[in-house]
Amino acid sequence: MDKQPHMRDDEVLMRVRDLKKHFQVSAGFFGQNPKFLKAVDGVDLDIRRGETLGLVGESGCGKSTLARTLIRLYSPTDGVIEFNGADLAKLKEKDLAPHRRDIQMIFQDPYASLNGRMNVRDLIAEPLEIAGIGNDKSRTARVHELLEVVGLNKDHANRFPHEFSGGQRQRIGIARAIALNPQLVICDEAISALDVSIQAQVVNMLEDLQKELGLTYLFITHDLSMVKHISDRIGVMYLGKLVEIAPNNALYDDPKHPYTRALLASIPIADPVEARKDNQDQMQGEIPSPIDMPSGCRFRTRCPLATDLCAEQEPELKELADNHKVACHYAE
Amino acid sequence: MTDIHVTVPKEKWTPVDRGAQDAEFIAAPSLTYWQDVRQRMWRNKPAMASLAFIILLILAAIFGPMLTHHTYYDQDLKLSNIPPIFEVYKAEPADAPAQYVFLNSGNFKLYEVAENGEILGLVRAKRKDLMKKQHIYVFGDAEVRVDYSQLPATLVDGDGNAVESIGYRWNQTNWFGTDSLGRDVLVRQLYGARISLTVAFVAAMVNFFIGVFYGGIAGYFGGNVDNVMMRIVEIIATIPLTLYVILMMVVFQSGFLSIIIAIGSVFWVDMARIVRGQMLSLKNQDYVAAAKTMGASTKRILTRHLLPNTMGPILVTLTLLIPSAIFIESFMSFIGLGVSVPMASWGTLTAEAVETLRAYPHQLFFPAAAISLTMFAFNFLGDGLRDALDPRLRK
């Protein structure tokens, strides 16, 4: 992928520092000993303008919670989300309103993310209506324009979501997300629910839109091959923390965190001879509960390299190579 | 065993010419949600019949009393307890025009009617023979006796032979007959329908405006708001309605007003519970999250996204709660807590009819039929709506 060089500069669009989102899962009879599910537990992340930042990790590692916290569907427990000179983490709902239009989201399930009682025109015009842009007529014109952009046509405007296929619905969802010309679009497993052939179409469309509109994507997925294709940089999450973040090629060619290596080893190999070879990096065991987290390094229970040091001390996210940060005591 | 030869014409074996267009055409015609609902509703005959019945009932309750000179309070004791259908006898005196009469077997009175069944008046007995248990009526030179020595009473001529009837006639003056005070049952029935429909209307309104929004807010905000609001609902739901109406009557005097207020203040709790349950499951849908990321206000999310998607269960609950409200009013009136005399409701009509049940069982028929048909109609309509509003049942 070749992005325009000037987009490559390191201007940070969104700076996330020590972001935490804990959910209270139980409390004693009188509220003592509350237990918390630490879905996101101290994430540092810079999203640069114009890039596609991929975010991968197993189910339940907090990817979606992170996305929903960044877009303030959840209020963060702690931390900073710096965006356009404001700290979104601290803003109240009504002060958040002007920033809402700059961050939009494409959801995983195109069947659940569109209100079945509204037609396509109303669905796509809704963000415009809420932002108070234009009148009824100009909004309809904009909807027709957006439908063309995402590869549908204006005859579809009066139809209802249930009349469309999954891929078409996702296109409607994308049209809705870009209606306000946002700066950041968060794609939360945006293509996981689609057929493989449709996935490619939608991903290509997302790339075209990025070029045309100068969008920045946070692309969350568990599909390692798709994220390699679309991302400029990739972050790997494990149990609510970022364990490694690196430019696309660096991560795939030289994974430094044992978890990243294990993830990459889990990609199915088409060659049966290769596949039969014993793989050192294969992970053992189940992901621990985010309620009772292991001490020290969270990955130590499944890590082939784990030592006593890992149980005592939590590794920090250190920059080991250019733009390549890893949180492991034994990474080099 | 005979050989069976089936000959199929050769041209039947040629492949069907499948036009390229037809092969591509698999889509059903595009329908909006409500078009779809209407279509499925239309196919449901019991539901449509119920809808027609309810519309007819509403029209009759509004306009019916305007079309007649009868009122719900005018008494005519001479014409009390007249049945809606009676057997007409012809008295043919030689020196006078023929007269038509019918015998009210409940009170052994003879009424003069026109040939088409219109009631002309009560006929006075010439003589009452208490020994033979006969009332003797004279029309010109003809004599007719009401013989009640054996029940049911019969009409005999002077010689004791049964008089031949000329058949049954529908009461043209009072279509549903009259009650024990000679009031027209049909008009009272229509006023009863007004009362029942008023109750239904009030129940629908409070369900719709209080129940839906109360449940919607409790479900949407959840947490402590939900806890407090639902505890209030539980407290309200524990109040026995009968006791509540009796207490209300102390304050308001009028039984009907008490019932309306009682139903109005407590009848929305079921709706609130159902809407709350719906909200709890719908508010986590992605389309609500999407609306939030656009910065939609709570009001907008509730009115544009959540409530329209709850419309199915709301309408169904409504059509099931309305008959129960009507029934509660009828029950209250039946036990004497409802509307005050001379106003009629289906409940009071039933109560009055029960008093005269042994002599005039037909008087119970009309209010009972009205109550049960209305219950049926609303229930069928509710079932039909539930099926029609569920897109999964689309064919």
Automatic annotation (TrEMBL), chain A:
UniProt topology in membrane: Peripheral membrane protein
Q: Which InterPro entries match?
A: AAA+_ATPase (IPR003593), ABC_transp_ATP-bind (IPR050319), ABC_transporter-like_ATP-bd (IPR003439), ABC_transporter-like_CS (IPR017871), Oligopep_ABC_C (IPR013563), P-loop_NTPase (IPR027417)
Q: What is the lineage of its organism?
A: Bacteria, Pseudomonadati, Pseudomonadota, Alphaproteobacteria, Hyphomicrobiales
Localization (cell) = Cell inner membrane
Q: Which PANTHER family match?
A: D,D-DIPEPTIDE TRANSPORT ATP-BINDING PROTEIN DDPF-RELATED (PTHR43776:SF7), TRANSPORT ATP-BINDING PROTEIN (PTHR43776)
Family assignment? Answer: Belongs to the ABC transporter superfamily.
Instruction: Output one GO BP term.
Output: peptide transport
Name any one GO molecular function.
Answer: ATP hydrolysis activity
Write down what this protein is called. Glutathione import ATP-binding protein GsiA
Asked whether the keyword Nucleotide-binding is assigned, the reply is yes
What keywords does the record list, in alphabetical order? Answer: ATP-binding, Nucleotide-binding, Transport
One Gene Ontology cellular component? plasma membrane
Q: Which residues form the ABC transporter domain?
A: 14-264
Pfam assignment, any one = oligo_HPY
- Which top-rank group of organisms is this from? Bacteria
